[in-house]
């Protein structure tokens, strides 16, 4: 009798455990699924990079050690990672806002160029310290939004797919920038770069002897703003609803042109800012070089950041730091084991392809057998 | 030179410039008819331009072109597998392919020693032929001119074409009728990607004769625009490909023409093909209708 009571107590304990501990824990793990998927995709991407390195006779362990040391190993490298993350957070937001609204807006690349050029152009004028910085930021923002407007109008009025229109505008921006850098905004003493941002419009350096500037505060502010706009305002709700179920939105009377315009313009603001913040906070030159230098691929990397961050502002911050770290560490990897920096982009591409598979975890689980039966609780 | 000579000069370059766009767009028409929207064309063209050049150096132009086609097939299989059996998001896979290609080509060019540029020896390039139509033409031009007619016949007069349309328009009905939706889509996407691969190899092994890290220069996306313009009719792809090829060569021609060169800055001229693309696409939409299930994976209920 005593034994039976013991077993009954064990059963009650088990039921209690499942109801109070394991169940909620399993649900929490399930809710964190996007996080696991991103981590898994990151690992698969790094594995693809390692395979390529092995094929080309590089030592992947040595390379990844250098990558880690150059990204998060020291205070200096961590600052560089954060400095690289500053514009990526903003371009990541651009893509995420579009995708939340059901638009595949890949125009950030061109809008970054235009925003940066507008910021440089504002240094043709002299203004008092503080004010100059704010005006320059606003100019970058507006320029990015203006550049995204034609694509928005083509989408709304003519139904042109945004992938095609934004890519075309990226190329037009590319050549327009070459023209402006070489002719209008050129530094009279050094033909290979534009004039520098005047000291009155520069972001002060946050960490001495690194390129981390106070510009990162702008990025963080916009993360909060986008979070607020998308989740706590009517228009934000409409945008997300449109991305979720356009047919239902039509019956609910949500106007497609309003959500598309919001997504494009808000995306243009953040992308233009990314360009402006980057040139305003990048020592030592505070200028754009011919060939566009560090601005190239900020927009497309933002896409990867948004994908890994699962199109959520908070996730984007983490993903941007990860990407910024890859870029910072990639430079060290290029120096010490001599692996070209471009390999990082291959890793990014592999991560994005992996993340496109919605049932990533399920496919992965097939290899693990039936270990997760307890999740039924 | 008379005006007529100039005109023939532009026409001559256009015939070459239209090849990669038309090939990629014809392939994409096959894929989109079956319901798969592959925006990785740009990456396929870029990557196969590289593999084509390497193949041509290793074993002549035939190997080069085959390497390009092979690259297209490999990426097409990956894209098709993810977007059919694994129900992946086609746009995201396409973007991933593009990024991967940009990174890998730049990486490989650095490994080859000359950052950003790699030339294919003249001997390894496709030999040009003299025809009544013009001298020094690439044989691939004639393939390009013929292929859309073949694709048109395939899509509108054969059972294969009917199956492709069925899986693109109403996969559930096609499934009930006994057509294997996923494998049909996978094969259509792979076949389409192989044509894009051939187009990429054409750029490096035949037309330009070198690889740079920006050799594709948006041609994959212009091909996508051509598909939109054509409304999935391969014959209109030929027309669209020629229009875009014409404006690309017009831009090249203007930038070398002494009188105009002095007035117009060189940076402005290369924008023309992209602006024309935007205008053409903006004008074309509205009259075209795409397959109902385009871009969506088929999930059996």
Going by helix content, strand content and strand pairing, the class of chain A is: mainly alpha
Helix content of chain B: over 70%
What is the third-level CATH name, the topology of chain B? Answer: ABC transporter involved in vitamin B12 uptake, BtuC
Number of helical segments with 4 or more residues of chain B: 11
Characterize the biggest β-sheet of chain A: none
- First and last CA, distance of chain A: 29 Å
- As residue ranges, the low-confidence spans of chain A are 369-377
Give the class-level CATH name of chain B: Mainly Alpha
Please describe what this structure looks like.
Chain A is mainly α and 377 residues long. Chain A has a single domain, classed as ABC transporter involved in vitamin B12 uptake, BtuC. Chain A has 15 helices and no strands. Residues 369-377 of chain A have low confidence and may be disordered. Chain B has eleven helices and four strands; from the N terminus they run αααβββααααβαααα. In chain B, the strands form two sheets. Chain B has a two-stranded antiparallel sheet with strand order 1-4. Chain B has a two-stranded antiparallel sheet with strand order 2-3. In chain B, helix 4 packs antiparallel against helix 9 (234-256). The longest helix of chain B is centred in the N-terminal third of the chain and has 44 residues, at 41-84.
């Amino acid at each position: 009798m005593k034994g039976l009571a013991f077993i009954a107590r064990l059963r009650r304990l088990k039921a209690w455990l499942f109801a109070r501990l394991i169940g909620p824990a399993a649900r929490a793990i399930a809710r964190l699924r996007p996080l696991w998927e991103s981590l898994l995709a990151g690992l698969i991407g790094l594995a693809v990079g390692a395979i390529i390195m092995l094929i080309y006779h590089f030592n992947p362990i040595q390379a990844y050690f250098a990558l880690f040391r150059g990204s998060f190993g020291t205070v200096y490298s961590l600052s560089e990672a954060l400095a690289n993350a500053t514009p990526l957070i903003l371009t990541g937001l651009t893509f995420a806002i579009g995708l939340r609204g059901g638009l595949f807006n890949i125009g950030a690349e061109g809008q970054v160029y235009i925003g940066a050029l507008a910021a440089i152009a504002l240094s043709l004028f002299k203004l008092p310290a503080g004010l100059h910085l704010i005006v320059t930021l606003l100019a970058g923002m507006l320029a990015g939004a203006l550049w995204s407007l034609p694509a928005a109008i083509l989408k709304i009025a003519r139904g042109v797919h945004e992938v095609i229109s934004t890519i075309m505008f990226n190329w037009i921006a590319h050549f327009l920038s070459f023209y402006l850098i070489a002719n209008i905004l050129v530094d009279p003493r050094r033909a290979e770069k534009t004039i520098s941002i005047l000291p009155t419009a520069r972001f002060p350096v946050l960490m001495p002897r690194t390129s981390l500037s106070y510009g990162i505060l702008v990025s963080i502010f916009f993360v909060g703003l986008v979070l607020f706009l998308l989740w706590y305002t009517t228009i934000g709700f409409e945008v997300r609803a449109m991305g979720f179920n356009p047919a239902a939105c039509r019956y609910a009377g949500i106007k497609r042109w309003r959500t598309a315009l919001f997504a494009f313009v808000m995306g243009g603001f953040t992308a233009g800012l990314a360009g402006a913040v980057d040139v305003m906070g990048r020592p030592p030159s505070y200028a754009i070089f011919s060939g566009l230098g560090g601005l190239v691929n900020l927009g497309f990397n933002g896409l990867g950041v948004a994908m890994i961050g699962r199109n959520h502002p908070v996730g984007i911050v983490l993903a941007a730091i990860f990407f910024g770290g890859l870029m910072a560490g990639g430079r060290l990897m290029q120096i010490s084991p001599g692996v070209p920096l471009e390999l990082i982009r291959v890793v990014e591409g592999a991560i994005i392809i992996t993340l496109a598979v919605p049932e990533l975890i399920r496919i992965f689980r097939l290899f693990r057998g039936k270990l997760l039966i307890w999740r039924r609780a | 030179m008379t005006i007529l000579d100039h005109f023939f000069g532009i026409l001559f370059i256009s015939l070459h410039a239209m090849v990669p766009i038309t090939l990629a767009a014809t392939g994409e028409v096959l894929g989109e008819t079956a319901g798969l929207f592959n925006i990785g064309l740009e990456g396929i063209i870029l990557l196969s331009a590289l593999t084509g050049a390497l193949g041509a150096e290793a074993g002549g132009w035939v190997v080069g072109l085959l390497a390009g086609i092979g690259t297209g097939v490999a990426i097409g299989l990956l894209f098709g597998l993810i977007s059919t059996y694994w129900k992946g998001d086609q746009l995201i896979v396409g973007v991933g392919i593009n990024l991967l290609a940009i990174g890998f080509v730049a990486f490989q060019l650095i490994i080859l020693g000359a950052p950003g540029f790699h030339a294919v020896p003249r001997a390894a390039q496709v030999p040009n032929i003299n025809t009544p139509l013009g001298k020094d033409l690439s044989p691939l031009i004639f393939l390009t001119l013929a292929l859309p007619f073949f694709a048109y016949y395939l899509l509108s007069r054969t059972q294969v074409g009917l199956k492709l349309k069925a899986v693109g328009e109403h996969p559930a009905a096609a499934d009930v009728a006994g057509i294997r939706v996923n494998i049909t889509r996978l094969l259509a996407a792979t076949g389409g990607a192989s044509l894009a691969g051939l187009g990429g190899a054409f750029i490096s092994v035949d037309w330009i004769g070198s690889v740079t890290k920006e050799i594709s220069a948006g041609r994959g996306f212009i091909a996508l625009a051509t598909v939109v313009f054509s409304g999935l009719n391969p014959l209109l792809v030929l027309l669209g490909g020629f229009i875009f090829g014409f404006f690309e060569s017009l831009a090249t021609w203007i930038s070398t023409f002494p009188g105009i060169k002095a007035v117009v800055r060189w940076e402005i001229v290369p924008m023309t093909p992209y602006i024309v693309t935007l205008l053409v696409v903006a004008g074309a939409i509205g009259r075209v209708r795409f397959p109902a299930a385009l871009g969506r994976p088929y999930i059996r209920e």
